[in-house]
Structure formats: structure tokens, C-alpha cells
Design brief:
Elements: E1 17-20, E2 38-46, E3 56-58, E4 62-68, E5 74-80, H1 82-90, E6 97-105, E7 110-118, E8 121-127, E9 132-138, E10 143-144, E11 152-162, E12 168-172, E13 183-186, E14 189-201, E15 205-211
Antiparallel strand pairs: 1-11, 1-13, 2-3, 2-6, 4-5, 4-14, 5-9, 6-7, 7-10, 8-9, 11-12, 12-15, 13-14, 14-15
Length: 212
Amino acid sequence: MTIFQATLQTTWQQTDWVTWQGLAAMPWWADMSFAAHSQRVFVCVITGSADGMEDLEIPISSLQFRLYRHGASHLSVAAPGAMQNIAPVEARKNGQIVLLQGFYHADGSRDLVEMARAGKISVRYDMGGRNSHITLAAGGKISFSFDPTIPKRSGPLVSYSLQADGHIRIRCAPVFGLMPGDWIQTPQGSYLVDRISVSVGRNQANMEILTA
């Protein structure tokens, strides 16, 4: 099964939240009530049409992306089993990395929606004595598929710190849709977002925000 679970809803217990402007309607894929009977999942697909092939879904163990208000952004995923992935991934290097998020239900069904995609794929293989994995990085512009009218509210605030250069660094549970240039509201005040870093793995999920 080409999914992994990220424990977004159970890691933090703080009562402070980070919010930013949006409407009140909650999309189905952001509804944490699913968590009682379904797994939150992220799925990676490598498109194949540019190489005359079908799309390829590969299992991933983690994903990361960094977004900057000024400058290029970065998207990467890591997948176990480099040997079995080498040939099919290399055959689709002219394609795009497409990330989907949603829920895997107890009956085996999935509800998924696209969250991001980017092209110009580069591939790195790491071979160990007993394990191996492949890292795919997208050097092209990241296109997100977020509805700007959905509520933009992160998970609970984990930490808030003032840096020596005067910028604020905020760590919280991620909700995807916040972008550089947005304004966020914390219990300490409102801030313009300059940089965002998100990391999601099997047992952790973090978002770090640096203000302008």
C-alpha cells in the first residue's frame, strides 16, 4: 500500500493556535473527525505522459517542502527500496512529482485530493548494507492546489521565539495552504510570513514559519 500515516492530530496538546484569514467552511480533507476511524495519508505520483508512459505511484516515507517569499522553493520526497524504484523513476524523469493528501479508510478505500506538483525531477540513490532509499527533488516551480476560501488554521502552536535578527520563528502542526506573503495571527500578534518549512514523516509532522 503506497501510503504513510502522519500523526498530525495527536502530537500536541497546547491550547494556543496559529491562524490566518479564511472562511468558516471546512473541506472534507481537513476534517480531523476522520482521525477516529481513518488514517491521514500522503501519496506520491510521478507523471509519465511526458515520456509516453502511465503515471507511477510510489510509496514514500517522508516529504519536505520549503517556500520562500523571495526566491525559489523546494519540494522533495523519500521512498524506500531504491533498487525496485530506479528503473521506473528514471523512465519518468521528464514528468512531475504530484503529492496528494487525504484519508485511508478501514474498508480499504481512499479519499484523496491533489495538494502540490512540480517538475524538473532530480534523483538521488542511497544504498546501505541492509536498506536503501531514493530521494526525488523537484527543481521546477511548485504549483499548489489549495482553495483560497478554505479556513487557514494550523495545528496547535508548539514554540514561538524571537531571533537575534528580529524575526519571529514559529513551530506548529502543519495545515497545508499557508503561503509566504500571508499574514498569520498568534496570541503574541500578527506577522507577515516570509519562509515556510514543512516536514512530514511516519511519526512526525512539523511546520516552521519565519516571519518577515
